[in-house]
Amino acid sequence: MIPISYNFRSLFVRKATTIATALGIALVVFVLASSQMLARGIKKTLGKSGSAQNGIVLRKGADTEMSSIIETPLVGLVLAAPGVRKDASGKPLGVGELVVVLALEKAGTSGQMSNVQLRGVSDDVLAFRKDVHLIAGRPAQPGSDEVILGKRLRGQFAGLQLGQHFEIKKNRQAQVVGIFEDDGSSHESEIWGDVELVRTSFGRDGIVSSVSVTLESESKFDAWKAALEHDKQLNLQAMRESAYYEKQSEGTAKLVSFMGGAIVFFFSIGATIGAMITMYAAVAHRRREVGTLRALGFSRGTVLSSFLLESVLLALLGGGLGAFASLGMGFVHFSMMNFASWSEISFSFDPAPDIVLRSLAIGGLMGVVGGILPALRASRTSPVAAMRD
Amino acid sequence: MSDASATRVSGGASGGASGGDGAAKSGFVSAAKGGSTAPTLIRLSKVGKTYYRGKEPIEVLKDLDLEMPEGAFEALMGPSGSGKSTLLNLIAGLDSVSRGTIHISGVDLTAMSEGARAKWRSQNVGFIFQTYNLLPVLTAAENVELPLLLTPLSSAQRKQRALIALRVVGLEDRAGHRPDQLSGGQAQRVAIARAIVTDPKIIVADEPTGDLDRHSADQILELLVKLNTELKKTIVMVTHDPVAAERASIVRRLDKGSLT
Ligand SMILES: Nc1ncnc2c1ncn2[C@@H]1O[C@H](COP(=O)(O)OP(=O)(O)O)[C@@H](O)[C@H]1O
Ligand SMILES: [Mg+2]
Questions:
Q1: In a domain, A241, yes or no
Q2: For a Cys-Cys bond, which of A105, A305, B69, B83 suits B38, CB 3.0-4.6 Å?
């Protein structure tokens, strides 16, 4: 009823307060959207590492590959279980892999160490993991001290660059001969070398961490799992690979969501109070204007909705700014500790539209919450206020 | 309320009452002082207004009986604090009485809810304030258009009407100006355009020339006379200014809440 341009222009008359208030709300929306984008990005990165048609076997009771120990003779048993797909020559599709954590010096620091996952893989790993592609260099020679590098580690640590060397154990150098990508999965934050290289370097003779297989179909999973877990002596647990990686991401994603949520909670209280103070000031300042509107016959409800609208406009102005800025996070990659593996994984923010819109809506909601009391006060302005001070 | 009906003279709808309002309302016919036979438009019966400062009552208006004929240009004078604005606000339906009744073209204002009064104001009263009270962020044309937002008129019709009203006050060429780009006299003329744009019966003006220099004040008074004589508006004006009061057809004096 009262034209929206009235609210817009009134906001611009008080430029400084409008900008300050909007920035507060922008910050909240930015943090909210970014933390959700990161949590989503983490889930996506780790979730991509697994397929529902693949199964993974760990030692019973182990949460991660790192804490799992399986004796090599059991690998054959897992591959021979019913439901495992076979290639043209009748060889079951599956690999036993040994995963360890290696401390390396971060690039550009003098001696600051951080953990990297090193995966000991079999010769035919590239045949098994079909999404993995070399984007530079060549595959590692089987039985050599050569490794290939996930692309997100490239340049992140000393020696992790095509053609360079790093110490895999004291006085033993490994050379990077290739760089691979894997559709953004967590494998891209790993170093892959021959399983024997990893065994001998880390003193893990005769064991692997996990056995991964490709099943004939997703529906074969239950039978395969039952066959392996039926024999309690084997002490194995079988999971869908997708479920395993999802579980791996859960803790980190939750932590990010929680920390983001906590920051947003406190910031939003501050920003909402800021909006409320700004709107109260506006109402006090425009008492005579509001009295005039009331005298002219505009109802209390109309005045209430006009001021509420103004508050929401203010919030959306800030929210839009914050949401727009958060889209920029889509270009940011960053490394952080994955708490499931205690090693660094590179994550990116997933700028999903639903996250951006939801964050913007919450910004608008702050306008409603902050604006309701001032708008109520405005609506109670007596029309006599038009006549008196 | 009952004493109001006692003083009520019922009769057929008076010829002067402008159409539109229902026939259920009765007109008032009074043999006004001064020989005029115009029907009564505004009738106050035993109207009192008491404010409370804390617990202490302040009787601002004391049992006023008052009739204003349709088409009059009334001036209300009196010392500061005598209750002029209070009385004007009651007549304009901005405020509610403490006692008594106010009938305007037969409609009992004092029986209305606040919401109903707001609607009634938008249809029947045009306001002119001492401080103009234009919305500073709106242009002259937008300010004039404002009361029309409460009517079912289309946007194009509203804009056209606003321009006509600006033409009446001679400021068509200032339609796009903001209030801070207008002189005091111009701002008050825009306010007058806003007051007449809905074609109300009554115009109330509280010290409309109080903030203006003599020349601008005279222009405003000239306009008010024109609204009264040409557009047949009933005008109730509060003023301190004897020159302003001279332009009115009826002058009433208020002192300590009573008409003298
Ligand atoms: N809202 C109010 N509360 C208390 N007293 C008021 C209020 N409004 C007006 N008054 C008092 O009523 C008296 C008349 O005021 P007013 O009608 O504005 O006088 P005038 O317009 O003749 O100068 C003054 O004494 C004023 O202080
Ligand atoms: Mg006054």
A1: no
A2: B69
Average pLDDT for residues A127-143, to the nearest whole number? Answer: 92
Question: Do A178 and A280 share a structural domain?
Answer: no
Q: What number of other Cβ atoms are within 10 A of residue B27's Cβ?
A: 19
B11 CA to chain A: closest CA distance, Å?
30
Residue A266 in any domain: the answer is yes
What residues sit around ligand 2, an ion, with C-beta below 5 angstroms? B 85
In sequence order, what are the residues at sequence separation of 6 or more whose Cβ sits closer than 8 angstroms to the Cβ of residue B175? B139, B140, B141, B162, B163, B166
With CB atoms and an 8 Å threshold, state whether B149 touches A383: no
Q: Per-residue pLDDT tens for B170-228?
A: 999 999 999 999 999 999 999 999 999 999 999 999 999 999 999 999 999 999 999 99
| Listed range (A35-44, A142-151, A355-364, B197-206) with the worst mean pLDDT | A35-44
Number of domains within chain A? 2
B135 and A298: CB-CB below 8 Å? no
Q: Is residue A333 part of a domain?
A: yes
Residues with CB under 6 A from ligand 1: B 51, 53, 58, 60, 78, 80-86
Domain boundary among A172, A199, A234: A234
- Burial pattern B164-184, b for ≥16 Cβ within 10 A else e, equals ebbebbebeebbebbbeebeb
Domain assignment of residue A105, given as a range: 61-234
**What atom of ligand 1 comes closest to residue B238's alpha carbon?**
21
Mutate to test the pocket of ligand 1, among B50, B51, B90 (most ligand atoms within 8 A of CB): B51
